[in-house]
Structure formats: C-alpha cells, structure tokens
Amino acid sequence: DQQVKQNSPSLSVQEGRISILNCDYTNSMFDYFLWYKKYPAEGPTFLISISSIKDKNEDGRFTVFLNKSAKHLSLHIVPSQPGDSAVYFCAARLAPNYGGSQGNLIFGKGTKLSVKP
Amino acid sequence: DTGVSQNPRHKITKRGQNVTFRCDPISEHNRLYWYRQTLGQGPEFLTYFQNEAQLEKSRLLSDRFSAERPKGSFSTLEIQRTEQGDSAMYLCASSFGSLVHEQFFGPGTRLTVL
Question: What are residue A34's phi and psi, to 5 degrees?
C-alpha cells in the first residue's frame, strides 16, 4: 500500500500565478516531510522540508503547509516561473528506529508541473 | 563540483551479466543511501550506510544485490545475474549529522537490461 500519495499526476499553471501541489500520507509515524524537484535526466533536488511538529515552513517563493489531522501537506510556489516546470516529489521520513527504519525516505509518485509563459 | 556524483551515468547490459555502480557522496556526509526509481514511480529505498556500516536493507534488495562502503566514503552497488526487471534509475543520496532527513541526490545511473 502506498504510504505517500500524490493524486494529481500533472498540473498546469500560468506564469506569475500560484502553484499548489498536494500530498497525502497514511502513516502517523512520519517525523519529517520533504519536497524534491526533478528535471529530466537529473537526480531529485531538495527544495524544502517541514518537521511534523510544525504546520508551516517558508523559504523564498516556496511554502509548505502541514495539516496533521488531515494527514495532508501542500507546497505553494508563488509566483510560479517557467523554470519551475519539473516533476515534484513529496517524501516522508519514518521516525528513526520505528519498525527498524534508520530514516529512509518514502516518496510519492510525483506531480509534473508545467508553468506556461 | 561538490555534489553527489555517480558513475556511470548510463549502463546497458545483457541479461545475466553483472554490473557495478559507484557513488561518491558529498565529502562531509556520513550517511549514504541507495534508491531505485522506475518509470512513473518515485524513488524506492534500497539500502543505507552510516560511515562504513550497512545499517538497513529493503525487501527490494534481493540476494543478487550487494552494496559496500569500505572506507566510509564512496559506495558501490553490484547487481549479479541481471534481469530485465532490474532496468531502472539507481539513485544515490547522502546526508549529514542532525540534518539526516535532508538527503541530497546524485544524478543517478540508468540501467537497461536487454
């Protein structure tokens, strides 16, 4: 079963507008959530993370919101730029030593963002 | 460039052959991870090292797979008797100290098994 779900395979947004990427999770033992951006033929690039004890973290144009009661997080990109066009992965880390885990990340399937000029 | 590097970037092999990939993490990072990514999926965890010790292996890591990190620096991932189902992107990531959740990925090695 998928513990981290990104239900929208793609999203198209106009340049300058807000992009909102969503992610749902099922395991309440996740202690960190992360967003990665991936361009074709490159590895994922770390964007922003949030601890499970927070509900918001902001870094420049990127803000991540965490709703623990709904087991939902979202990444907001404002304003969106054409260079933001990429696949965005939501990832979660199991708290270390939970079920034998040393903190490996569990990824969603990704959402392809297209920002149109 | 001080990021995570992986070699080779691409590998094409015939079924049944052995392949070996190398990962050089960011120099001060003591933790190293291997992931596998197939088309339309996110990366899936394979194994993890802290310094030279291999501390965790996923169920995905069959006995044909072996990983080493002999001196706590670079790591190798070997696949013996490759199968077509092994075709994937193999990603290496590293992290450091208290920021263990922030893993930095290399460009990956794309394996094609014919």
Answer: -135, 155
Q: Say if the Cβ atoms of A46 and B50 lie within 8 Å.
A: no
* Amino acid residing at B66: S
Percentage of chain B lying above the pLDDT 70 cut: 96
Pick from B56, B103, B106: CB nearest A105? B103
Q: Average pLDDT over chain A, rounded to whole? A: 93
Residue B68 CB-density burial (10 A; 0-12 exposed, 13-18 middle, 19+ buried)? middle
Nearest Cβ partner for B91 among A43, A91, A100: A43
Least confident of A1-15, A96-110, B25-39: A96-110
Q: CA B19, CA B78: separation in Å to the nearest integer? A: 6
For the stretch B41-56, what's the b/e string if a residue is b when 16 or more beta carbons lie within 10 angstroms of its beta carbon? Answer: ebbbbbbbbbeeebeb
| pLDDT of res. A37 | 96
| In the block, residue with structure tokens 């670079």 | B74
**Residue B55 sits at the chain A interface (C-beta within 8 Å):** yes
Give the chain B residue nearest A33 (alpha carbons).
B101
Give pLDDT, residue A98.
66
Q: Tell me which residue in A42, A89, A100 faces B42 most closely, judged by beta carbons.
A: A89
Q: Which residues contact B63 (CB under 8 A, 6 or more apart)?
A: none
Question: Which band of pLDDT confidence, cut at 50, 70 and 90, is reported for residue B88?
Answer: very high
One-letter amino acid of A94: L
